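Deliverable D2.4 — example input (structure tokens):
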């Protein structure tokens, strides 16, 4: 499989396609998904997650030289978010609205999700970096104030999954995933502001990884936990996701870059080693890709292969090469690129298949817009770290 020159393909093919076909020029923001035939699904609600991820994606693309169309896409996402998704009464970002921004503050749709709030930090940081817009940092601060005031858990640490109404059961299970993406947003805010507060907050999330998220018996990353961060019952409590082991590897190495904290290296090494030993395809005749789920002992649970774990593996491989000089990781990065362009991505358009079987058969052809963030961030890292693959 021939891997295209990454800068041209990522910006001029993929991102341009999504901006041309999925950006909602009537109401602002991006539609949520593309069908197998390449057309958007206009009846879907809009989500804070999709808008924040696309705001990040197109703002980042601006820093790599994307044209005015990228600014239009980024501005459109920010406009939709600020105009329709911030809750002026209760604070925080709504999880979803109608396509035109109509808010439904019922119990089902009115809660605020911790996962969404973290992505707002990431997107506003990058929008500020790309445009210099001071308002973006104001929105980031309002978001952090909401997280502290409403979602912080003073009893057991970390943050609640989401808001909930009086009389409703506590939202379980607890997950490491929203905290991981909050860490990503905090690191981005530190990079654009240089304010010590953000890296100190990031250190708090890393401490949760040390003390709460990892299985004390095996060192693996637990996905689902109880109210007090205890083990969650099977089957969900058994799940270990290779993709998140890789994503944490990338984050820890960049946290180390920004903080100078070398103590995270053994954790990053362990998470990475577990993923490549137990979460990766070993049959050379099958697509070189990560499985969806394994157990703590490495036994596969789901051998299907979603797109996003492959992009997170690419980021981890690149970080291992960049910061540790890991030659094997560099070679793995190239093989992941070959898998991405040979199995998942339509090279002509930038539309992808979301999930394949272990053998490479398409299981989900529909392309959720929110995954543009995963694909673009990974390829953006490849463009930055390996320029010889890019131009």
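Example output (designed residues):
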């Amino acid at each position: 499989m021939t891997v295209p020159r990454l800068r041209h393909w990522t910006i001029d093919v993929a991102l341009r396609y999504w901006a041309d076909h999925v950006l909602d020029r009537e109401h602002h923001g991006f539609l949520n998904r593309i069908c197998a035939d390449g057309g958007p699904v206009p009846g879907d609600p809009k989500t804070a997650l999709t808008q924040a991820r696309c705001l990040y994606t197109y703002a980042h693309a601006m820093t790599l030289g994307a044209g005015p169309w990228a600014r239009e896409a980024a501005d459109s996402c920010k406009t939709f978010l600020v105009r329709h998704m911030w809750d002026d009464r209760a604070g925080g970002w709504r999880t979803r609205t109608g396509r035109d921004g109509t808010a439904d503050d019922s119990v089902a749709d009115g809660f605020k999700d911790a996962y969404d709030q973290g992505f707002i930090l990431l997107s506003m940081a990058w929008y500020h970096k790309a445009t210099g817009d001071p308002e973006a940092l104001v929105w980031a601060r309002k978001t952090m104030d909401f997280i502290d005031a409403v979602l912080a858990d003073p009893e057991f640490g970390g943050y609640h999954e989401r808001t909930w109404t009086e009389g409703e059961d506590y939202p379980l299970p607890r997950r490491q995933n929203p905290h991981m993406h909050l860490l990503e947003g905090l690191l981005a805010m530190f990079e654009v502001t240089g304010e010590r507060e953000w890296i100190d907050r990031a250190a708090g999330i890393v401490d949760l990884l040390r003390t709460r998220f990892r299985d004390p018996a095996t060192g693996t990353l637990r996905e689902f936990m109880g109210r007090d961060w205890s083990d969650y019952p099977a089957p969900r409590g058994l799940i270990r996701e290779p993709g998140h082991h890789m994503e944490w590897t990338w984050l820890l190495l960049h946290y180390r870059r920004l903080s100078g904290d070398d103590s995270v290296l053994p954790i990053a090494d362990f998470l990475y080693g577990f993923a490549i030993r137990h979460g990766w395809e070993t049959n050379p005749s099958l697509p070189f890709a990560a499985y969806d789920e394994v157990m703590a002992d490495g036994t596969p649970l789901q051998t299907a292969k979603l797109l996003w774990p492959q992009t997170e593996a690419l980021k981890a491989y690149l970080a291992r090469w960049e910061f540790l000089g890991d030659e094997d990781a560099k070679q793995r990065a190239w093989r992941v690129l070959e898998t991405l362009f040979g199995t998942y991505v339509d090279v002509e358009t930038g539309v992808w298949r979301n999930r394949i079987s272990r053998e490479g058969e398409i299981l989900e052809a529909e392309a959720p817009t929110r995954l543009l963030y995963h694909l673009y961030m990974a390829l953006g890292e490849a463009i930055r770290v390996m320029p010889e693959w890019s131009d």
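The chain is about 50% helix and 5% strand.
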